[in-house]
Specification:
InterPro entries: GDNF/GAS1, GDNF_alpha, GDNF_rcpt. This protein is mainly alpha-helical. It is 57% helix and 5% strand. A hairpin with a 7-residue loop joins strand 3 and strand 4.
Length: 368
């Protein structure tokens, strides 16, 4: 019996190591910073890449002339031969995300925001569970937004990271100035959403409300006085990439049962949450669960008016995103980067399954 167990343990260890190495190899192979280093070592590639760096920097300040833009586009087309730069991706939430995105958008100088910069190959949805009923309902009559805040406080990681972003977003730059450090606020918000399990962070963001006090608490979750409005224009590569992810996963479809082209409301919610902490941060604009928007308007858009309105409609009139209209959704969501999480520490998976069972019981009670 011991021999059998030993063999099984060795096979399991080999499987875990194999998948871990596979994931690491995938991330390294397609990382844009690695691709950049390979390009710099080739003289012809480096010259084209440096030219595109200049083009990107100049375009961020003011639109290029037609001749200069043509030269930049020619350099971009010539760089197509360097395959690693064309297929590279960036890992969301990593410490190198911002410098990696700098490379990604440099070689895509003229690309639209619909390009997808993030790699999704290292995340597998383990559990996605919905329970839908009328929006005024709540388990045991509790204020779900208050309960979500309490649950977050009881979980040390959630509580500490939430306190971190609240401090970063409410601290004033000087005693006499009423402004905040929006860059630090955004960074702390992204850190919270990237490191806290969606079971807690999504409960805070998407908790159902039926009264004014609850709605106001939910609206203030992201400290909108600092994180929401952006008065100074600047380049935000993270925001550009997150918005591309949002467009990809929240594209509405009138023919789809889910309302989404990609048939995944869960991925749409994750993409929406990914916008928080960037220049494209959305938020509730009232106590209604269906009314979310960007802080900006299309005033002064000129001949870009229709393009601007399409962006705003992605938030205000999007069947895929506003899936919780007149509906209460409980979302249990967990991502497994490798088999190691399931085999070595099964407790998170067990915890999720217990929650799923509780929600199934609740759903059955409602349907009776």
């Amino acid at each position: 019996c011991r021999c059998v167990l030993l063999v099984l343990f060795q096979l399991l260890s080999f499987s875990v190591c194999f998948w871990c190495r596979l994931v690491v190899s995938y991330v390294v192979l397609y990382d844009c910073l690695v691709a950049e280093q390979g390009c710099i070592q080739e003289q012809s590639c480096m010259i084209l890449y440096r030219l595109l760096e200049y083009c990107t920097a100049e375009e961020a300040v003011s639109p290029l002339s037609s001749d200069a833009r043509l030269e930049c586009l020619e350099a971009q087309n010539s760089l197509q031969r360097h395959r690693p730069l064309q297929v590279c991706k960036c890992q969301r939430g990593s410490r190198r995300e911002e410098p990696c995105l700098r490379v990604y958008w440099t070689v895509r100088f003229a690309a639209s925001a619909s390009s997808l910069a993030f790699s999704s190959g290292n995340a597998n949805i383990l559990v996605i569970f919905y329970v839908s009923r009328g929006s005024s309902l709540s388990i045991d009559g509790q204020n779900q937004c208050l309960k979500a805040a309490q649950d977050c406080g009881l979980y040390e990681k959630c509580g500490s990271l939430r306190s971190e972003y609240v401090v970063a977003c409410t601290k004033r730059t000087t005693a006499s100035d009423n402004s905040c450090n929006r860059q630090k606020c955004h960074k702390a918000l992204r850190r919270f959403l990237e490191r806290v399990p969606e079971e807690y962070s999504f409960a805070l963001l998407f908790c159902p409300c039926s009264d004014t006090l609850c709605g106001e608490r939910r609206r203030k979750t992201i400290v909108p006085s600092c994180s929401y409005e952006e008065n100074v224009r600047g380049e935000d590569r993270v925001g550009k990439s997150r918005f591309a992810d949002f467009q990809q996963n929240c594209q509405p479809s009138p023919l789809s049962p889910s309302g989404c082209v990609r048939e995944s409301r869960a991925m749409c919610l994750k993409a929406y949450a990914g916008l928080i902490g960037t220049i494209m941060t959305p938020n509730y604009v009232s106590n209604s669960s269906t009314e979310v928007s960007q802080w900006c308007t299309c005033d002064g858009s000129g001949n870009e008016l229709q393009a601007c309105q399409r962006i705003l409609h992605m938030f205000s009139n999007n069947k895929c995103l506003l899936h919780f209209k007149n509906t209460l959704y409980f979302i249990l969501y967990t991502f497994v980067i490798s088999y190691e999480v399931m085999f070595i520490d099964p407790s998170p998976t067990l915890h999720i399954l217990v929650k799923v069972f509780e929600l199934i019981v609740f759903s059955c009670e409602l349907s009776e």
